[in-house]
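F.,

This is the one I mentioned.
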């Protein structure tokens, strides 16, 4: 058996592919990532399983989407409960590595990817920097409300109070290196960076503008009145976002310099962000390319370019096969992505977005995202969506039946 490789997975929250040169974009803000891509294995059409961390990461970690069971079931009351159940019944990539004899560790500053939601499953060490705010019955982590305004208000409060959930990567970088230095070999390490997430607040030396200058832009976004003053304030948000992207590339530059070519290093975004391109800001609602198309690069291992679509749901297979010295074909003619109300089928040069009130076919040729008129392709895409919904309904029925049988057995 060939020697197993050490593996480091770097997940960057909210990183758009078009801020990198990975997918052929000219104005890259990440020269280190571009260099890793040029010398490594690059996926030019990597697609997030969903348009937000809560939808994307559970599927990335396990290769499967969480199943929404019947509304009356114990798994139907909250996102947190569904995720905990999902991680309990599906193999995580950490568990796969553990069975392969790997030492496993993780560093995450994202509260939704924390021990509170059982993302530490399969890890020997898991540091999330989040002091759980639960009640005695294990209630939900009360960091912010469910609405966009509530979440943004929470973000701003965390920002001004220097909350640990927005720790810049430099605050724990030495801990990451120390973990690698002392870890048993072989090891698997997951580093989850949140610097690119709203409120886009890198250290002072990486800011194009002062924190005070950003306050009007954040308040404007909080107000929800994004149709007014957009020409003035939206560019401020984009500028701040770009600053955080450059700051994150500095993490990669320093990390590559410090660890050398020993571990395989896999870098990806979990989703992107919108800045008014389709009438919205942030992420979670739309399935536009700015949100679902993310960078995915493997360094210190195989080389080449994969142009066919690849879902981040392939991550468990990709990571463990690379660790064994093999390069799996995880691409497909099309992949799915979605949120609880919308679903998209993403091909190489096309995309079909289904909504309860209808669907829209888009052409993605030449980097555009324009409505397309192709009756044959639309018919195929509609059939794929129907098959998806049918398969999901069957899974829900199976899960509900299994739960009822389990309850009867306990009685």
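My design for it:
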């Amino acid at each position: 058996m060939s020697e197993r490789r050490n593996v480091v997975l770097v997940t960057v929250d909210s990183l758009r592919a078009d801020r990198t040169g990975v997918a052929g974009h000219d104005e890259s803000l990440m020269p280190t990532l571009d260099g890793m891509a040029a010398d490594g294995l690059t996926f030019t059409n990597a697609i997030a399983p969903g348009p937000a961390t809560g939808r994307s990461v559970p599927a990335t970690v396990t290769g499967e989407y969480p199943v929404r069971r019947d509304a009356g079931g114990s798994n139907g009351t909250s996102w947190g409960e569904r995720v905990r159940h999902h991680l309990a019944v599906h193999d995580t990539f950490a568990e796969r590595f553990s069975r392969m004899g790997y030492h496993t560790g993780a560093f995450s500053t994202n509260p939704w990817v924390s021990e509170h939601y059982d993302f530490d499953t399969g890890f020997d060490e898991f540091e999330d920097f989040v002091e759980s705010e639960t009640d005695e019955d294990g209630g939900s982590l009360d960091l912010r409300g469910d609405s966009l305004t509530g979440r943004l208000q929470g973000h701003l409060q965390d920002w001004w109070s220097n909350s640990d959930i927005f720790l810049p990567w430099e605050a724990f970088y030495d801990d990451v290196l120390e973990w690698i230095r002392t870890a048993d070999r072989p090891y698997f390490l997951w580093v989850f960076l949140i610097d690119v997430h709203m409120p886009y607040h890198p250290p002072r030396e990486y800011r194009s503008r002062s924190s005070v200058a950003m306050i009007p832009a954040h308040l404007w976004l909080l107000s929800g009145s994004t149709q007014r003053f957009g020409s003035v304030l939206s560019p401020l948000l984009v500028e701040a976002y770009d600053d955080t992207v450059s700051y994150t590339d500095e993490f990669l530059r320093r990390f590559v310099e410090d660890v050398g070519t020993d571990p395989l290093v896999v870098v990806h975004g979990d989703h992107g962000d919108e800045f008014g391109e389709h009438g919205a800001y942030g992420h979670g609602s739309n399935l536009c390319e700015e949100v679902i198309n993310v960078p995915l690069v493997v360094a210190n291992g195989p080389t080449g370019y994969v142009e066919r679509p690849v879902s981040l749901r392939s991550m468990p297979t990709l990571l463990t096969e690379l660790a064994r010295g093999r390069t799996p074909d995880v691409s497909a003619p099309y992949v799915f992505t979605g949120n609880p109300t919308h679903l998209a089928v993403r091909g190489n040069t096309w995309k079909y977005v289904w909504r309860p009130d209808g669907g829209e076919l888009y052409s993605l040729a030449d980097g555009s995202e324009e409505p397309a008129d192709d009756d044959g392709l639309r018919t195929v895409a509609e059939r794929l969506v129907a098959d998806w919904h049918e398969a999901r309904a069957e899974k829900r029925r199976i899960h509900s039946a299994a739960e009822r049988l389990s309850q009867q057995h306990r009685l």
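The two ends are 48 Å apart (CA to CA).

Talk soon.
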